[in-house]
Amino acid sequence: MNFDYNEEQQLLADSVKRFIGKDYDFESRKKIVASDKGYSDDVWSTFAEMGLLGLPVSTDHDGFGGGALDMMGIMESIGEGLVVEPFLATTMGAQFVARGGSAAQKKAVLSQVIEGKLKLAFAQTEKGARYNLAHVAAKARKSGSGYVIDGEKSVVVHGPCADKIVVSARTSGADTDSKGISLFLVDANAPGVTIKAYRTLDELRACDMVLKGASVGADALIGNEGEGLALIEEVVDYATALVCAEAVGAIRSANDATLEYLKTRKQFGVPIGAFQALQHRMVDMVVSYEQAKSMACLACDKVDSEKDPAERKRLVSAAKVRVSEACRHVSQESIQLHGGMGMTEEMKVSHTFRRLTMIAQQFGDIDHHLERFSG
Amino acid sequence: MDLNYSNEELAFRDEVRGWLAKNLPSDLSDKVGDHEHLAKEDLVRWHKILAKQGWIAPAWPKEWGGTGWNVVQRYIFEEECGFAGTPPLIPFGLTMCAPVLHKFGTEAQKKRFLPRIYDCDDFWCQGYSEPGSGSDLASLKTKAENKGDHFLVNGQKIWTTLGHYADWIFCLVRTDSQASKRQEGISFLLIDMKTPGVTVRPLILMDGGHEVNEVFFEDVKVPMENLVYEENKGWTVAKYLLGHERMNTGRIGVSKRELSKLKEFAATQLKDGKPLIDDVRFRDKLSRVEIELMALEITNLRFLDQMRRSGQPPGADVSMLKIKGTEIQQSLTELMMQAVGPMAQPFKPMNGGDFDAFTASLAPRYCNTRKTTIYAGSNEIQRNIISKMSLGL
To answer: What is the DSSP letter of A343?
Structure first.
């Protein structure tokens, strides 16, 4: 047993933490969020230079072959700094290609991702699908040597900046059948693809995506036709583990800010942290943090090592339930203990609140994962 | 024991309900129902409709326009308004400044301000909290020096709700910094927001909304006649106000409306092809809130019954109405956000695209409602009040 990061993991985690502390402070982030694109190309290049984009890519494709455990420290820092760059979205897209793609797709996509030249996103959710990954109504039918896709996808996180989008569409079966789902790597500006962009509550860019007679070549298919669901579940579990780690960083940030506030905010002549009623609540927030961190470790370890998909799903869901509970608890308490100031746009804690609120529902809310856990 | 309203009370409720059905403009109730931003004109318009009907200030003395309703009728009226989805009545003039003037104001002050409050010719806001004085209000620092024919006010207020709409602000200010007890050097002043030296700065909340402000006072001259009650006796005024009109803090009508909307909405959202409301995990959570609200309604009625029979203002126990009422409001907004699932994430369209504004309002609404356990005496302070005043701890 050893819960420490190894030397390489620690070095990388430290360098990301340093970068975020120095160049991605709350004021810099504010400017990025308010910019046209909603993310920074400079920051993106820096991520590429630091090797973050290549970390999860196998060494066969010029990456570093890192697993989710190697990504944990990075994701924690991303959570702490409320990073808005399309890191998770691009990593997810790359994982689809790395795990299910052809040799040609890997060659075309992965090295470009590593160099920061290609941004990706994943278009999955549809109206009425909630968190059910098998609910895919978008259709792809064979046409000539390729396919034509028709359908509507919702909340494609980082879709507006993506160069290519992994789209799930049904090649056979009914809307919620587990068989018949296929995955396609679609150019964001392909004919027949339109997007409606928006800002999300947690200050990311996302879009709804309409595919109307969007034709793609046979080489756009990722994996085997009709067998996409297992890969979707695998990559979404991986991303869920990463977002659990991101939550841990964001929770730590909220706790640090709240503890500092309890020590410095004075009422009735004393720091409000002198009141036992508040002390115990702060302690409970720290307990939530530790429990969430433990489950994030479990999730990251299991998405790397667990070979049985049923067991992997069960454990990832366990982690997501506990982490989501911690997201709710800590975000709500951090605002309450900050009082009115916590409600304002100018305090970082209100932004952390929003991100934690969204993470609690991302890739499935507590109810969804409870159901998946208990079977 | 009889838990039911009397026939007279039921008749009164039907009268109010019938009148609201006819007179509440649907564009206003739609805005309220969809959680859209209410402009000053919307608030004033509804105020004036009620004023015309004579129902705008039920608790005022009859000679100033009060309705003579007892506490139960007043409660019924407020809950019916909440359930129907009327715009909120902004309390600062009607139920905060006015009761103070009725109790402590001079005849001249009453004549000058009360009719304009009644007709909403003046929009009021409240100047209590300061950056260093939130829960510990008595530590307030905004200074008012007695210059003989006027007070000279310098300082800053914060969390001034709708201060950007306001014509007037009532303020607690420090007139004696040497007083042996902090509470003894405070005065209650009425300040015209147009006076030179008054500046309003918006504070944007995390849902992007502008409802609260900071108000700065720089060498603001306030005529002596705008002092309410005696100099250095402002704390008496503030305490009176605190014990006044605290029966609607449960906001039961509003929560009932939100609950029924949540049920309707959850019936339209699908989970695995079936209405979300049939999902047992979700429905249990919803039922728990519904039961809590049921209990709070009866608790509220028990307090009202006690008040009606004793003729005494509510005791410290009403703090629990605020605690439970706000917790219920928060649970309802959270369930609404959960009901919409992944569609809770979209917030603001870019590039002028169209957008489902209602579903996009649910998560910001959840964010915004976090304020309810903080404002008007945080729920921690409410618990302190109960433990000190009721339990003697």
So the answer is: G
Residue partners of B233: CB distance under 8 A and separation at least 6? B187, B188
Domains of chain A, each with CATH number or no CATH:
7-117 (1.10.540.10), 121-226 (2.40.110.10), 229-374 (1.20.140.10)
The whole domain housing B176 covers 124-233
Residues B70, B133 share a domain: no
Question: Is residue B170 a part of any domain in this protein?
Answer: yes
> Once rounded to an integer, what is the mean pLDDT over residues A166-182?
97
Residue B29 falls inside a structural domain = yes
- Which entry of B245, B258, B290, B334 is annotated as an active-site residue? B245
Cα–Cα distance, B129 to B141 (Å, whole number): 10
> What phi and psi, each to the nearest 5 degrees, are found at residue B215?
-120, 125
Longest distance between any two alpha carbons in chain B, whole Å: 75
Q: Residue A130 and residue B204: Cβ atoms within 8 Å?
A: no
Q: Say how many C-beta atoms besides its own lie within 10 A of residue A30's C-beta.
A: 15
What ipTM does the predicted assembly reach? 0.96
Q: Which CATH number goes with the domain that contains B220?
A: 2.40.110.10
A176:B374 CB<8 A = no
Kindly report the pTM of this predicted structure. Answer: 0.97
Q: What is the mean pLDDT of residues B323-343?
A: 97
Over the stretch B3-23, which tens digit does the pLDDT of each residue have?
999 999 999 999 999 999 999
E strands, chain B, are: 124-127, 143-146, 150-158, 168-174, 186-192, 198-204, 210-223, 227-228, 270-271, 274-275, 346-349
Is A155 in Cβ contact with B346 (below 8 Å)? yes
The per-residue pLDDT for A375 is 82
Per-residue pLDDT tens for B129-186?
A: 999 999 999 999 999 999 999 999 999 999 999 999 999 999 999 999 999 999 999 9
Active site residue B245: yes
CA of B273: which chain A residue's CA is closest? A128
